[in-house]
Amino acid sequence: MRIALAGAGRIGARHAAALARSPHVTELIIADADPRRAAALADHLRPDRSPPARIRAAAGVDELFDAGADGFVVAAATDAHAALVERAVAHGIPVFCEKPLAPDVHGTLQIVRAARAARVPVQVGFQRRFDAGYQAARDAVASGRLGWLHTVRSCGFDPAPPPAGYVPTSGGLFRDCLIHDLDSVRYVTGREVVRVVAAGANRGDAFFRECGDVDTGAALLVLDDGTLGLIAATRYNAAGYDVRLEVFGSKDSVVAGLDERTPLTPLPEEGRRGPAYSGFLERFAAAYDAELAAFVQVAAGDRANPCPPEEALEAFYLAEACDLSRREGRAVEIEEVRR
Question: Among 17, 43, 47, 90, which residue carries the largest CB count within 10 Å?
């Protein structure tokens, strides 16, 4: 298969490496807003491929649409996602896109409609859906092993904040970070959220407040069957990267993301069991590989799309509701933000 990839930054390089290792990818064409960065990534990947596949850099992103690609991976800057996805769909090319598909609900809706009209699969990059722990938690819920659910808790704690220049275009903490937790709650429980109450705080750098954002946030979710969800995220967790999902039922409880590298110190203190994860690329390395392998199968027509744009739209609605609740200090029904 011939795969085109737009974006040679940190996540683009990660995806390119996974695709380069795939036995099903015979050609990988990489483009970036900076052609030199695309060329450097292509040069870096070539020695690692065995048997050697053709890995080359394109002069620009426009060239990718004329490359006869069987699949298109969007890992460019966030503000370029929507336009690239829509162009790929218009060319009839199956797409994998890092979240978000678009910066707002309106743009996400446009992509949903375009993908439906063209009947072209668009897979969204919610990598936690491909993590073995999250999948096992979903299976435990579906099997009935936990009984009826009463509480779901999810957290996403970053070791350090992003650069100040990233925040103004990030969409804010709920759309940028907590959207993963919101999607995970839906994915694992198989239920919909009907109401949220959210709050935020600024205890760190001033640039979050200056952008109208928060560096720490939390929300109470009410699911359609009465289950309660509790989600939290922060940009300041110097102990290390910590992402967990806990599911509590009437018969049993399970947790995904708790291992010897979870940055929690038991008390009385006995010492850390292992070095904490440095960030999401390390923690979810296997999940990133799995979601790209799934996309290759989707592009080949060998499996159903595991995360279509409709799923991204639902998560975006929840993030919008949480941010509205945080700003206005009240409970928000999801129907208020649904369009």
Answer: 17
Classify each residue of 284-299 as buried b or exposed e, where b means 16 or more C-beta atoms within 10 Å of its C-beta: beebbbbbbbbbbebb
Of the candidates 29, 35, 41, the residue with the CA atom closest to the CA atom of residue 70:
29
Residues whose CB is less than 8 angstroms from the CB of residue 186 and which lie 6 or more positions away in sequence, other chains included: 192, 193, 311, 314, 315, 318
Stretch(es) of the chain classified as CATH 3.30.360.10: 129-284+315-336
Q: Is the dihedral of CA 175, 290, 129, 266 positive or negative?
A: negative
Cα 329-331-333 angle, rounded to 5 deg: 135
Q: pLDDT for 169-202, tens place per residue?
A: 899 999 999 999 999 999 999 999 999 999 999 9
Q: For the chain, what is the mean pLDDT?
A: 95
CATH 3.40.50.720 correct for 2-120 = yes
Distance CA 246, CA 60 (A): 44
Instruction: Give the global pTM.
Output: 0.94
Mean pLDDT for 239-265 is 96
